[in-house]
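Treating backbone geometry as a discrete language has practical consequences that deserve illustration. Part of our work consisted of pairing the sequence of a single chain with a tokenised description of its backbone. What the numbers capture is local backbone geometry rather than side-chain detail. For completeness, the protein is quoted in full, as a sequence line and a line of structure tokens:
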Amino acid sequence: MSSSYRFGRRTPPSARRPVAWFAPSTLLHAAQELVASQDFLRNLDRRETFARDGRVEMEVIDLARREAADNLIFDFIADTGDGGAATFAVAHAALRHEIHATDVNGRSVTLPEGELLILGGDLAYPGASPHDYQYRLLEMFEWARDPHSRFRRVGGHEVSTLSGPHKFVAAIPQNHDWFDSAATFCRYFVNHDKGAFIGARTPQTQSYFAVRLPHDWWVLGFDWALSGDLDRYQFEAFAELARNDLGPESDLVLVYPEPYWTRRLGDGAPEGYPKRYQRLESLLEKTGARIRLRLAGDLHLYHRESLSIDSRHGCDSHLVVCGSGGAFTHPTHGADIQWPKVIDRSEAPDVINDELREQTRVGCSTNASAIDADRFTPACTYPTADATRALALRALWRSLFRVRLSRPWREMPVTNWLRELLDSNLGFALALGALYGINAYVNSFVFSASFAEDHFKPMADLAFWPAAPLWLNAMVFSPFATGVNLLMLAGCIKLAWEGPGPRWLRALTGFGHGMLHGFAIFSLYWLATHGLQWAGISHSSSSLSGGLMSWMLVGAAGTVLGGLIFGLYLTLANGVFGQLPNNAFGALADERWKGFMRFELNRAGLQVYMIGVTPHDSAHRSPTDGSDQRVVDQFFMAKPGRTGRTAQ
């Protein structure tokens, strides 16, 4: 895939099309990298290579002792590197020397560029190759960097001798960054403090980090790789940090690679064996530290839920999903966003190992009112649930027929046209049409005089409804036909398996979707044979030319009908029932509703803004033009015992 990328200034952000997630080449590429990375991780976990002599020493990035120690501005961006226009727009806003905007109360605010940039992962799509990083992430951020920035670029090896101020970057990888076992991620963000990313300092020595901020605020970033949890060495490193550096005056921002709280309470952990991150949260709280904010990307939206008073520490606490850095928009009307969220700290009294006794669990509960636990309440959603539901109902049905070109037709050689089609969602519809033709081929052989003893006859001699049960029989008549049909059915059920609905409903809808495709193939083949007979062309499957023509007609018509059925299935599943959020909105590739979070820390506490950004149509926009940025949410976390701004 990367060989088709054109790098440099002649390919502006608007020409770097979003990933076509249903293109056959994209699906194959992502599957290959995922399988290879999972196999590598099973045999050698890169996170364990950070250990020395059987332990990990957490090297804290200390920003509390710099010259301007009282105040600090920092940003959070996640899920970049998909559409060029969207990624550039967010980078352009975040790297401006200052933003002038109006807050949610109508007051004008001026927000200088952040000194620290926290990257929440999934930095390039669909994989994590050097080509993907360069094309979709590095060039977009470098191009967006403000020449009037107050931060001096870092270059070379002796960064400690350069006069500042410097911008700092701390990052964690998500699953797509692990598609090459996090090799490219580590090349830019781990043990490479040489200004390779926007000339900023990147001093972290592991794929996870701890940043000490002024006034005893901390940001801890975790790496789950592809396992959905901390590895043992990482757990021990953060546990040691908690014992040695954290205490009753510490306020914590925890950065996760996934918003685990959008899943069922407990996150699927076996009874009596909580996950390590659940044990770590309990250990952090035992020191007296207050978890004020759990923050993650992964879902390409913004959603905040708040707890006005946490019964454990008496302060407010927040759950924030902010994966709006440049990837396609995810829906906000699904159950994972809408379900009530609770926090539960109940002990497991029957465990044998004391380390497993205490846990802190946050997650969805459909019976939240019956649980003796603190309950979060929704505070802000961007985009709104009504907006994403309307988008699904209005546009999903035709999503497979959308073609986004890397450059205009007239600028491409004719030999590249087919490649461009196959690298778009339309390529999936074409592949679906080919599958229709193959399915008609394997099922149609029995519809001839040779199989009269089995009650088959030429399809053109059969009326529509008498032919239907015979087609069902043909689907399982031979092992080859059975295999092809079962593969199609299994694919539809696998597609439906993306939650969060009950499994029986997922299986039922997937089965119905597969059977509908089977009925469509039968209908098209019946029409093709009768049409050929009407035209006076031999249609028998025993006739090579007639049979080939009927199969080709089914394939051509299947591209349209199969694509419509698939799109309508996504429309109903997501727009009506809130299912398939990733598959449905990945097909849409909507680049709107982007943004990032800006934090303003002072003695009174932490003021947080969500800055909404509208993607640019052109790369050549003045760095002083901020008309497309606005504050869509804001809140304030006060430092206990301090006076200052109040919650907004």
The CA atoms of residues 117 and 169 lie 5 Å apart.
